[in-house]
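Worked example 3 (structure in, sequence out).
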């Protein structure tokens, strides 16, 4: 339990640090973009074409940093919830609608099963959409076309609604599992490492719990548990 506490503390410190850095980077970045626009007007006619290439590189990269910063701020700031009594099953299945085409396109199999006995309870559908979509996308990205199987279930256990999302993808090694929810932790070339930070933030703001079970080369299950 002490270890758990320490871990939670470390994570919240990481979030705070990330937020502070994000704020600190945003101002100089804005100055940089403004100065760049000014500089463009100062370029002599003869070299404007050569300069164009470099201007584009600079502005593409300032845009990218800007997007990272805003993702980071969005992923780690406490969210204000719009809670409405509603069906968890409905939210899950609506979110799945957003990836059904993608699953089909990659010839992956989808298995869904919903516990009908789960009562409606207070949920923020927009935010849960974002959270669950992130979990689906991670699962899909971990699996191979043709053989990938995404299993999505809801169950009711001792007054708790549990959403499980299982893939038979590449799995996660134990060392990485300890860092999954930290901002910027990514195992992907083009990843931001902010998806699971966002997911955890949204689940926690619902007083929910998120946990993982994963085996390298076998697959991964994410469990999201709510009091209902
Ligand atoms: P991103 O997807 O941008 O890398 P995330 O926070 O969503 O950031 O995920 C962090 C990392 O956790 C991923 O890069 C990946 O290495 C690992 N991960 C998350 N979900 C899964 C999964 N279902 N199977 C295997 N690895 C996963
Ligand atoms: Mg992700």
């Amino acid at each position: 339990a002490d270890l758990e506490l320490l871990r939670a503390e470390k994570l919240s410190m990481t979030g705070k640090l990330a937020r502070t850095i994000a704020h600190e980077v945003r101002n100089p970045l804005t100055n940089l973009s403004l100065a760049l626009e000014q500089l463009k007007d100062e370029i002599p006619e003869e070299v404007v074409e050569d300069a164009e290439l470099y201007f584009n590189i600079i502005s593409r990269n300032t845009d990218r940093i800007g997007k990272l910063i805003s993702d980071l701020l969005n992923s780690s700031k406490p969210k204000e919830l719009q809670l409405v009594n509603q069906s968890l099953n409905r939210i899950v299945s609506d979110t799945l609608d957003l990836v059904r085409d993608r699953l089909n396109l990659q010839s992956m199999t989808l298995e869904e099963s919903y516990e009908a006995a789960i009562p409606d309870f207070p949920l923020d559908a927009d935010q849960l959409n974002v959270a669950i979509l992130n979990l689906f996308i991670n699962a899909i990205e971990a699996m191979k076309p043709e053989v990938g199987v995404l299993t999505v279930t809801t169950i009711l256990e001792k007054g708790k609604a549990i959403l499980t999302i299982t893939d038979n993808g590449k799995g996660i090694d134990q060392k990485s599992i300890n860092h999954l929810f930290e901002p910027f932790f990514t195992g992907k070339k083009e990843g931001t490492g902010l998806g699971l930070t966002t997911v955890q933030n949204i689940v926690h703001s619902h007083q929910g719990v998120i946990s993982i079970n994963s085996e390298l080369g076998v697959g991964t299950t994410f469990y999201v548990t709510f009091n209902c």
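Notes: Residues 2-42 form the longest helix (41 residues). The chain has seven helices and seven strands.
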